[in-house]
Design a protein that fits this description.
It is a single chain. By secondary structure, this protein is of the alpha/beta class. The protein folds into 2 domains: about 1-135 and about 310-345, Medium-chain alcohol dehydrogenases, catalytic domain (Quinone Oxidoreductase, Chain A, domain 1, Alpha-Beta Complex), CATH 3.90.180.10; about 155-290, Rossmann fold, CATH 3.40.50.720. The chain is about 30% helix and about 30% strand. It is built from 10 helices and 19 strands. The strands form 5 sheets. Strands 3, 6, 7, 10, 11, 18 and 19 form a 7-stranded mixed beta sheet that branches. It has a 6-stranded parallel beta sheet with strand order 14-13-12-15-16-17, with helices on both faces. The chain starts with a strand and ends with a strand.
């Protein structure tokens, strides 16, 4: 089968590799339909690592995907051939203390699509996944929307981790890439009162306004801390950091109200970040890292299917598998106003 393989830093080749074969008893064989290019994929493409997760080339990335079921294992009774699904890229053990306490996203024995040292990704024609990681989608969702369920899950989980009901609450989202936009869509659906978005790329900020932001400020052109505090002298209740930058973390501390929460979603390229301890301590700000998502796939599908959330506006570019490297280069350089690039098989 055809696959797009990382062969070095910023190097990707189309290769023919063996098909995965028959699924195990609790697994399903999937025909991959659409793959989203994610920021974490770009870390591996541009630097070969995220923290201590280091790529050994050749390696296949990719974890945001939709698929069609080709074959089911003997013990699978929740799926059948021809089902259209959204894929949760996580494989969890169901047995460790984390899984048993409901925290499958911190499973001690987990594997994740396209994660070095764990398993290859989905930039190929077929994969095998556990049936537990596969979610049927309704007819109202197309395969592009189904592939977008994975990044939207992260935004939805971050919103729920901050607060289930945001009615009457003021929030800020720093970074309006696909994850920041996903937080925005989830927060708007959860009833946030005012949503302030900051972003250094105007095209992303303008899209944020179109899909529900009340304010957009470019920190390279204006003092976004002063402007937000002028509108909200007490600060925001929740600040969602989606850029993975020291500067945006500092701005979050500046604009968050005493007793508020800083939700750390962005993945920094550095091994360490810091906080101004005087402000952080005096305000008693809770710093909450966000690890992927937890039990949010079905709620995400339901929200999109209900019409309360529209993921389509974030898709700006489409490619086929033969041109996957062009998609990665485009996203790596933030070229041509790209927000979300999809690879269609």
């Amino acid at each position: 089968m055809k696959a797009a393989i990382l062969t070095g830093i910023r190097e990707m080749k189309i290769r023919d590799i063996p098909a995965p074969g028959d699924p195990g008893s609790k697994d399903v064989l999937l025909k991959v339909e659409v793959i989203g290019v994610c920021g974490s994929d770009l870390h591996y493409y541009k630097t070969g690592r995220i923290g201590d997760q280091v790529v050994e080339f050749p390696f296949m990335v990719g974890h945001e995907c939709s698929a069609t079921v080709l074959k089911t294992g003997s013990e699978v009774d929740t799926l059948r051939e021809g089902d259209r699904i959204a894929v949760d890229p996580l494989i969890w053990c169901h047995e460790c203390d984390q899984c048993l306490s409901g925290r499958i996203h911190t499973c001690r024995n987990q594997k994740f699509l396209g994660c070095p040292g764990q398993m290859d990704g989905c930039l190929c024609e077929q994969i095998i996944m556990p049936a537990a990681s596969c979610f049927n989608i309704p007819d109202s969702l197309d395969m592009i929307q189904a592939a977008l369920i994975e990044p939207f899950c992260i935004g939805l989980y971050a919103q729920r981790l901050a607060r289930e009901d945001l009615t009457g609450k003021n929030i800020a989202i720093l970074g309006a890439g696909p994850i920041g936009l996903s937080v925005l869509l989830a927060a708007r659906a959860a009833g946030a009162e005012n949503i302030y978005v900051t972003e250094i790329r105007d095209c992303r900020g303008e899209l944020a306004k179109k899909v529900g932001a009340d304010y957009f400020g470019n920190p390279e052109k204006t003092d976004i801390v002063a402007e937000i505090l002028a509108a909200l002298p007490n600060g925001v209740d929740y600040a969602f950091e989606c850029a993975g930058q020291q500067q945006t973390l500092d701005q979050c501390i500046d604009i968050t109200t005493p007793g508020g929460k800083l939700m750390m979603i962005g993945i920094p390229t550095t091994d360490r970040v810091s906080f101004v301890i005087a402000q952080t301590r005096r305000k008693e700000i809770t710093i909450q890292p966000v690890r992927r998502q937890n039990h949010c796939v079905q709620p995400a599908i339901d929200l999109v299917a209900s019409g309360k959330v529209d993921l389509n506006p974030m898709v700006t570019h489409n490619y086929d598998l033969d041109h996957a490297k062009e998609a990665f280069d485009l996203v790596a350089e933030y070229s041509d106003g790209v927000i979300k690039a999809m690879i269609n098989l």
